[in-house]
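Tutorial sheet, problem 5. The two components below are modelled jointly, 369 residues in total.
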Amino acid sequence: MKFEKFSKPFKHVLIKDFLDEKDAKKILKELQKEKFELKESDLFRFKQTKDLKFSKREILRGFLESLLDKSFLDLLFEIFGKKLSGKIDAFGSLYENTDYLLPHDDRLEKRKIAYIYYLSDLKNGDGGELLLYNSKNKIPLKIGKKLNPKFNSIILFEVSEKSFHSVSEVLKNNKRYAIAGWFH
Amino acid sequence: MVSLMINKIYLNDKIIQGIKKELKEKNFVLLDSFFDSSFYEKIKKESAREEFKKKFVYNKYSFLEMQSKKIEKDFLSAQFIEFLEEVLNLKIKNFEISIRKFGHGDYTLLHDSEKEKSKIGFLFFICDDWNLNFGGNVFYKEKNLIVNPKENRFFVMKKSSRKFVKYLNNKCGKKNFVLIEGRVN
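Model answer (structure tokens):
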């Protein structure tokens, strides 16, 4: 599997064309059938499914299984040097016009590696970018990297006190679908 | 009390008794058209004239802020303090205000460490036709209460509760509002 590894602003990996395109399209189609609920707090506004582990759609459960495939977990160990439990959280997310996720570090007990598998393409000016921050002493200081969601690509990063990230507000009438969660 | 700046209707004894009762029962009260309209226009003009500076810490807040001796003086006026002391039934020892402007992309987040320093606080909004879907709504977390921006709106909260200003989204375009926040001890 071809991947690009980056160390700045914090350790992350990008894998383009993660799955066979046909399979990715199928996953998107199935995900769109899931029920999305509006989630809102001081930090975010977007729509989310329940944990896909409990989805009745086999294709979605199959996607999670592929993330937990031994060869993929071995690759993650090689990249991040973290031993993973083989447990995973996975939620479908949908960001539409005015939805956002403000900067935070994701730290919560058991979360070791965060991932976002994109099922939409967004371009400059659409919003919905993933922003990664440079930080010092647990304070995000500057945007270190911007990534436009690309269909069938996956980004993974280590959850740490440095892993400040956000999703910029979606500015147009696009639908930004993704499956995101954490490896424990 | 002589009406200099506060809308006369709020200086009526019966109304004041009603405000006191509401504060006692609910710990908060919302008073629209709070200042006399000419006085409201005056602070609106003053706030438009002043220069605001960007303040942000990505994981805490983003807004513009300014210091204005004039506006501070207005809020520290004898009539305003007297009104607060009367409705809150206490003697004010300390009083500080912040003057912030919120526009597209601004927000404040809840922070555990940011438990309100004082028990009593107030909000005052300066704005034009604010649509609730723009964001900018002030959420009082523990109270499960939302205060929406509206011109000349005054809001008093008696008990400490963590709060945040909801992210202002692209629907607000170039519109913004000024929030004058006071803390009383």
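Marking note: Chain A is about 15% helix and 35% strand. Full credit if you identified this.
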